[in-house]
Amino acid sequence: MGILRPVKVGRITQEFDGDFHLERPGFIRGGLPAARAKPIEFPGSTRRAHLHKAIDYGVPEGTPVLAVADGVIVAQGAFSNGETWLMLRVKRGPKWQVIAFYTHLKEDSFKFATKAAVKRGDVVALSGNSGGITTGAHLHFELRRGRREKDPRNSFLKWTRFDPQPFIDGTKLTTLV
Ligand SMILES: [Zn+2]
Q: 102: CA distance to ligand 1 center in Å?
């Protein structure tokens, strides 16, 4: 069994683009859903690709956001710009853990305390448009894998991100740990 779609409504406004890796020179568009997003240029860059290792769902603010699998809310909060996010650990192996990361959530919409165990399908927060860097209300959703001992809040670049779609279509998370 794979994971749930993180929202029941809304079309995909930006798909996962895994053809470009962080360590290569190029442009990062920061996961923004539309063309007016300003790319970040790395020194020596020649590659005009953007990086979006996530799926964006265009959904109205206040749409229920679901736990995509049974798991534990390992962290939730907001960046200094107000961008409100949640990290749900959905799988843990001997060496690896898999985190579902949701962002641009509605401010103060968390439904559980940090460290709470939740069930697949539980509403964990509401979608929003937080952070001031979006071009419209949407949910940004990532699947990340990292070493089990890593704190997901502190090691963003050390996490590998996977296209969530095959897992929504039924690929088991056990293939990642
Ligand atoms: Zn995004």
A: 9
> 33 CA distance to ligand 1 centroid (A)?
6
**Ranges of each domain in the chain:** 55-176
pLDDT in tens, 39-78: 454 444 334 445 678 898 999 999 999 999 999 999 999 9
Classify domain 55-176 by CATH number: 2.70.70.10
Whole-structure pTM value: 0.83
Å from CA of 10 to ligand 1 middle: 14
Rounded Cα distance between 50 and 20, Å, is: 7
Residue 13: exposed, middle, or buried by beta-carbon count in 10 A (0-12, 13-18, 19+)? middle
